[in-house]
Amino acid sequence: MSESPVAPRHVYLVDGSGFIFRAFHALPPLNRADGTPVNAVLGFSNMLYKLVGETDADHIAVIFDASRITFRNRLYDQYKAQRPEAPPELIPQFRIVREATEAFNIAQVEMVDYEADDLIATYARLARAAGAIVTIVSSDKDLMQLVGDGVAMYDPLKQRAIGPDEVREKFGVGPEQVVDVQALCGDSVDNVPGVPGIGVKTAAELINTYGDLETLLSRAPEIKQPKRRQSLIDFAEQARISRALVELKSDVEVPVPLADLGLRPSDPGKLLGFLQAQGFRQLASRVQTRHPGAVPTAAAPMAAPSEAAPSAASSSVAPVAIASDTPQPPAQVEKRYELVQTEADLDRWIARAEAEGVVAFDTETNSLDAVLAELVGISLAVAPGEACYIPVGHVGEAAAGELNLSGAERPPQIPLDTVLARLKPLLEAPAVLKVGHNAKYDIQIFRSYGIEVAPVDCTMLLANTLEAGAHGMGMDELALIYFDYETIKYKDVAGSGKSHKGFAAVPLEAARDYAAEDADITLRLHRLLKPRVGRERMATVYETIERPLMPVVAAMERAGIKVDRAELLRLSADFGERMVDYEKEIHVLAGGPFNIGSPKQLGEVLFEKLGLPGGKKGKNGAYGTDAGILEDLAQTHDLPRRVLDWRQLAKLKSTYADALVEQINPKTGRVHTSYSLAGAATGRLASTDPNLQNIPVRTEEGRKIRRAFVSEPGHVLMSADYSQIELRLAAHVAGIEALKQAFRNGDDIHAMTASQVFGVPVEGMDPMVRRRAKAINFGIIYGISGFGLAQQLSITPAEASEFIKAYFQRFPEIRNYMDETKAFCREHGYVKTIFGRKCHLPGIKDSNPARRAFSERAAINAPLQGAAADIIKRAMIRLPARLAAEGLKARMLLQVHDELVFEVPESETERTIPVLKEVMEGACAPVIELSVPLVVEVGQAHSWDEAH
DNA sequence: CGTTTCACG
DNA sequence: GACGTACGTGAAACGT
Predict the structure, then answer these.
(1) One GO biological process from the UniProt record (predicted)?
(2) Structural domain containing residue A777
(3) pTM of the complete model
(4) Do A471 and A589 lie in a common domain?
(5) In 3D, which of A754, A747, A791 has the Cα closest to residue A771?
(6) Distance from the CA of A812 to the CA of which of A225, A312, A732, A829 falls in 20 to 30 A?
């Protein structure tokens, strides 16, 4: 292969060996059809694909290690000696990764006796000498010594560049001094000895003081600290050897000249053949999309690529087992989707549904807002592949976006009233199960037409009950995971963004294909998931919590809550005027105008223009400017305080005052949120459009917004909230005796904690001490960490760790709970609440310690947060019926995790309060008897703020 | 479309 | 000893 002698301008050097290890540990196990593990190959291939697609390089090579033994072992026989053998699953992948590089038609280089890093150093030098710039694709710290002067590094996994600043952040010195620092601090991974007792921090300090290693070693006797001085004298030679080990060799006689690394076009057929042979379907299809004509040329004599499961599915839930459970993968069943345009056809489908006893259904509407939405069509599925679409509100195509001047004709459809009249008996028939995906929405739609759909199953809730936390619960995602099937996307039929035309304007055939498929997939999901819920002992959670909650939440959404529009408008104007004042003041303080809302510009003003102390912190090189940082800076300068004031008003104005006015429903004059029942992994609800679970309450300015949430005339808003529910559950679940007793006594729990942990009497306690104890109690619920607590309390991590230690000593049961919960999660991949709800945490086995620790804290929190969610859900299910039975008209409007908000006639408030308390406090019975009491506090007023 | 910030429990 | 920090959410604004 002779390369045209083009002078290199940009050379990419990919650290192949480094990447294989990283990909292997970062990705979940994955096997191709013949059982060969290929997860690292997939990671590697994805990386190359992206790299080749994005790079402007004209020369590129992947560099590998040829063998474990290199010239460095002759310098120091212990070099990399204690490094464990590669895991057996990785070994076969070394070869395949080289095949992958070949398939991409990228040059690859390796050389006996040298590490990949030495070859990279050599090519980098050659490239610079030829006038090219160099990008080293790697995150290996051993390569950082090469950075600078036209050489940069790029971490393909984190997609970030590593330049001199990043190197300085890591080593505390510039790239040219990295070798000296490494010589001192050594490297336990590579078994580079360094000097005992010297870490990165100390090494950087020393090198910054003395300039380089040799100067330091020669002037070692001057060093003040006796221990350090002696180490440097005793281990000077070891430091020199270490330096020789870490310094890369840039004069290797490379086997391939730089000129031969020129970027070559790949052969799409060959690449496709390789990818398909590994079973990398996603990547193969992307290649195919880019090269439509490509035909895979046989690469390996292998069976058809089979279940190398899509990466989305390769979590803790054993996707292969699920897939093998699949009754009929859609691809193999003939699809018969029918357009229903006559009453006779409609009756035929209704009869089929009644005969089956189960029908999947889906509604198409002209709005995502269930309160405003009008029906455009209905789809039904009665058996896999057998589905129909009944259009009722489609308009002529031309009528959609523009004025219907030509009177574009409405396609033939059965009148809506007729369809509804015929469907009503079916949808309300107790003997016919109706199955929807996110059925709450469809229940709402039909309720607005006077149809009470029942009984109903929801495949989104079934999937969530089984696998919350493992993956998303949208239908498209589930179809891909369970059936390996790509659904038609809404935006493909109805457009999106500017070209969105609304479903009513979609031509009937396209609408049929999309809508009928939704019902079809829903039916198939139901056949798969419903039996699993029983088999896997999750029926109680689904049947007693999730399923009965659907109609209750649907009613709350429909009820909505009244907001005082005029008051919100006044607030918006007030906030706006005050913002203008602040803005002027800020610009004066800053010495010129800038966009206060831009963290980037603000950071530059604070830290560069004004030169305030603090500085960079983000991984993206951006300055941090959050409230904590500005609060600290406020001691030094007036500007940060003003920015904090401005930000508060900006937030209140845009997110609340203005947005809520926009959200007032023109039909009802109220605000209707939408609750997501399968959004949060822990079992909590989530509120969207608008989010009514984060209405301000903590500050006086913020509470003005809450004051605009009001009752109808003659009514009050009544707020009932569980006191300390998660801490009570922690006491119960972890069996913390002292905490349980305190709750039984009705003690001030934070004061009690403070008294126990800090050994001070509750009487006359310093509020500061109680505040600390409160933070620790919260920390317990969150899976406490020294760093987190330190940040919360503005103390040092060491002090925080002391507090935690004292807490564990006083309440030893909590430690057991934490350890057992983590162990359970590692074994099963999920944790459970006392009511049996599961929360999956795929990250619990992550090889990255930070991500794993994150999952461990989540594992500790989820059973507590989840049990609290179970309890309030149980109360919500019982309340409407209990209130009705007592002859009370209270309507449940909102849920905010541990609080329920009702609208109550003024004449009934006295009688309503005890009912709310009784049902909510008794919500665990009869399945669970808590060892601590639950306490509910009730308040009432004409606004939500005052009802607290 | 991802990041940053901030509102809530 | 590295990782990069308290748990769970959603919305708005900025800037690429």
Answers:
(1) DNA-templated DNA replication
(2) 746-810
(3) 0.69
(4) no
(5) A754
(6) A829
